[in-house]
Queue: 3 jobs
Job 1
Amino acid sequence: MTMKTLSITLLMVLISGTVFSQNRQGQNRATPPPIEERVETILEKVNSELSLTKEQLESSKEIFTDFYTSMDKLRTSGNRPDRSKMDSISKQRDEAFSELLTEDQKKKYDKLKDELFSRRRPNQ
């Protein structure tokens, strides 16, 4: 009787350990910085490359805030975000931001945006 009880107890411990480890997988993701911080970071990079005017900076802040807010809403829905929706939001961001730029700035931005918004990490 004791061997049977011990076996069942051991089996339950193994099963519960497996279940808890699977529940924690989503918790291992890094929490993104606040939207304001991400907007400031991106604007610093963009401004250093494109030399934006004060008016362009103000409008850009609104565009990037809307972009990050929309992306965060997709990601926090609980399910894996729809790639087509994410691409659509990115396209809207690029179109709105490009409208603010001069032709020379647009050319520079086209080269810069892959570096800025790529999900790939360096050295991977």
Job 2
Amino acid sequence: MNPWVFVALAPFVMVASIVWFSLRAQTERRTATLRVVEEAIKGGQTMTPDTIRALGMPRKDSNGDLKSGLILVAVAAGFVVLGWAAGVVSGEEEAMYMMPAIAAFPGFIGLVLVGFGLLGRKKEGAE
């Protein structure tokens, strides 16, 4: 096998390993916190949500869908601008038609996530 293959694959392996290590550490931290909560409940102590949050359990982010959706819409807009700029610079209109087609995937997913974020916000306000 050619050694240049390893050089080319190194950035991808590095990113994958960083994501894997961070997810594994986060899972182990949550598991340890849940063990502490379980032992406390077995010991007869009452656990309030504030106590559990103080132990390190993260609170659910209600704006997660909205943030993710807006980021994907921004990525889609970036693809459209890239296609427009490539079409203007090279003089070929194919890029102007191809990049918006590629941008449709993150754009539509982003719009759905923005919708979920806005609908979730209305439900929280009603309760």
Job 3
Amino acid sequence: MTAKQKWWLVMLLAAGALTVSGATRIVFLAGGPSHPPGEHEHRAGCLLLQSCLEGMADVTTVVYSNGWPAAPEVFTGADAVVLYSDGGRLHPLLQGDRLTTLGKLMDRGVGLAVLHWACDVAKDYGQREFLDWLGGCYEQHWSVNPLWTAEFKTLPAHPITRGVNPFQLYDEWYFHLRFREGLDRVVPLLTTVAPASTMARPDGPHTGNPAVREAVERQVPQIVAWAAERAQGGRGFGFTGGHYHKNWGHDDFRKLVLNGILWVAKVEVPANGVASTVTPTQLEQNLDFKGPQRPRPSSGK
């Protein structure tokens, strides 16, 4: 171990970031500031989810900001990794050898939960890995990212849906995703029919294409959250919502994600799901300072 690595290890121990022996360890990787205030609040979202898991017995959590920790030792003993960050060309996993680093964790069965834009990796660099690790992903020029109210009338029986009631919510729900062939070892969790209004934008990398337009016209049900199992025993949870920070205040929306994080970490999900309460005051905490905001384009990211 180098002097720098020893220094980081001492700092991690001092901060309580390394888990007590025998406890399940969940590592949150929160991306940096992105989008206008209240949108893509990666750090605040991860800290909020972390606070909701604090009462779980034998579970320890740690949140790292800006997409990737400076010291590789933080992954030691990890049972699950949660990614909540920008995606596409800005995806923190597509920098340097990080995809390889995460792949080594996946090889030993570490769970993976991926939220919102972090589902979007490059078709030629990252998609193959995500289909293996996560079961599905966003693909530009195939998938779309409209803002719309999705209604989930029924939910399948699965540990991740325990205690989650049918609900509807306005968010940037991605759909027409890429999944493993035949949905092999993939369980759809949130499925709905996208309305015609989601196709109001012109074709583009994120806005539309002939294949998705045909699917919406035929009212093909779209998967926006799913669970997956890997051949080597690891688990994946994909969730395309999470654009608006305020939605973490919605009990069923939040519970599904908390359940999913526990499930990929191979922690038994409570019979009624993870119980948690989030107040308006808590939703205002830890928000990124984003400076003066310029007008945002009406399409794309």
